[in-house]
Amino acid sequence: MKKYSVFAIAREAMRGHKGWEEQWSSPEPRKEYDVIIVGAGGHGLATAYYLATVHGITNVAVLEKGWLGGGNTGRNTTIIRSNYLYDESAGIYDHALKLWDGLSQELNYNVMYSARGVMMLAHNVHDVQVLKRHVHANRLNGIDNEWLTPEQAKEFCPPLNTSKDARYPVVGAALQRRGGTARHDAVAWGYARGASARGVHIIQNCEVTGVKRAPNGAVMGVDTTRGFIGAKKVGVVAAGHSSVIMNMAGVRMPLESYPLQALVSEPVKPVVPCVVMSNTVHAYISQSDKGELVIGAGTDQYVSYSQTGGLHILQHTLDAICEMFPIFTRMKMLRSWGGIVDVTPDRSPILAKTPVPGLYVNCGWGTGGFKATPGSGHVFAHTIAKDDPHPINAPFTIERFRTGRLIDEAAAAAVAH
Amino acid sequence: MLLIRCPYCEEERPELEFRNAGEAHIARSANMAGESDDDFEKFFFIRSNPKGIIYERWRHMHGCARFFNAVRDTVTDKFVMTYKAGEPKPSKLPGVGK
Questions:
Q1: Sign of CA dihedral A412, A400, A352, A243
Q2: Fewer Cβ neighbours under 10 Å: the N or C end of chain A?
Q3: Which domains does chain B have, with CATH numbers?
């Protein structure tokens, strides 16, 4: 892997850019690997990267039915924050946030992590109580979060409507300054490049169609559209399709998959300097470096794998955006799309060993997995390499739905799910 | 937006009138206190989440307000049929191969 640097740019400029190499290779699959990761999204590629760099396990294949980073990694609204209520969640999301800081240097790839601040609006007494509770809980966990008055919120984000006669007036806000955004595609590409350079095989257009188990129950490998590939350890990181893959191994999951939509506007000059979220009117918005407003909508109410969603969901979100930012009422929306998110009953992820020896699962990130990408890959690699969870992901078991030891962000998350 | 046929109103109405109520045909135990942890987990948390035909409950919230069941393909979102609550799970589906 040739290092990217200002000297590399100068060198290539001198010779007509003919020396740039492929960022990752596309090898033929081997008959057997030490570890197979199912799903080449951000979480899967990060897992492969940390297996190689932290644990020295490089005989790894990442299998992807489509193209790398083409699922939810390329469909999310790129928001990064760690201001979750419970200790377990704070642990894993802040672990990720610490890795975001410095990820571009680590990967030698510009993931454009921008700590521009995530501001969550309160519109009524209940919001104020909930968000202040978050501020205090976060600070006890060493996570930055601060309370803003409407005037301070307006100062932090000038286009915000803080007029007192708004239908849902802003009565305060919680601000996590370390929160922000990153370039989602670059995250997948950077991890893919780093993993590939260390010998990991990234095999695209290779759909897993079955999970083979030995007579003693342990995993032997996976059937794919390119034939059987053996491995004693298989990690499932398949987002909305995780329960489909787990079913192939005979494991039924506490998951349901829903379409989640997002949309972007035409590009305009910089106008939204931070991320603004509102639970009550259900909208969140930021501005990409290209200038598009990036707007997240809600999920449909029914299980679906259609990668689309109802138009009324988008309309509802745009109603809220126009309420918060009357300045945007005449903006044109450019594109909308949907991704399939796998949601657990307690709205917290599952990163764990499974009842099947050699089978591991990293799923249930629901509507907010992007922010956790580096941390999730880091602790999941540990779980696979050591056959034992990292202390940070130890609470995120499948068994919690039997024991009742839930991590109930369903009621506590700072956004509506 | 889905168009959903309410089997009570016998009319196709827009999705906004309805509330999805999750997977259908999950029987609640008559003796809940006697359920094992495993059985309670299956009843309460584990879902089939199929990519394909799903049996699900809907409620005609802003119409007759009654619960009913539906069969739908989760890939195309097309409804195969809807039927009244309490009726048995249909074994043969119109227009579906398997």
A1: negative
A2: N
A3: 3-84 (3.30.2270.10)
* Nearest-CA distance B79 → chain A (Å): 12
The string of pLDDT tens digits covering residues A252-294 is 999 999 999 999 999 999 999 999 999 888 889 999 999 999 9
Q: Torsion over CA of A161, A165, A168 and A171, rounded to 10 degrees?
A: 70
pLDDT digits (tens, 9 = 90+) for A336-346: 999 999 999 99
Interface contact flag, B37 A402, Cβ < 8 Å: yes
> Amino acid identity of A261?
Q
CATH no. for A118-177+257-343: 3.30.9.10
Q: What is the CA radius of gyration of chain B?
A: 15
Which residues, 6 or more positions from A129, have their beta carbon under 8 angstroms from its beta carbon?
A: none
Residues with Cβ < 8 Å from A366, sequence gap 6 or more? A341, A342, A343, A344, A347, A349, A417
d(CA A190, CA A194): 6
Q: Do B20 and A301 touch (CB under 8 A)?
A: yes
Q: CA nearest A401 in B: which residue?
A: B41
Interface list for chain B against chain A, based on CB atoms closer than 8 Å:
1-2, 15-16, 19-20, 22-23, 37-38, 40-42, 44-51, 54, 56, 72, 74-77
Reply yes or no on domain A25-109+183-254+346-412 having CATH 3.50.50.60.
yes
Query: Chain B: nearest CA to A315, how far in angstroms?
Result: 12
**CB pair distance less than 8 Å for B47 and A312:** no
Q: How many CB pairs below 8 A link A and B?
A: 65
Helical axes A42-53 vs A373-386, angle rounded to 10°: 50
Closest CA of chain A from B27, distance in Å? 17
Residues B5 and B15: their CA atoms lie apart, in Å, by: 10
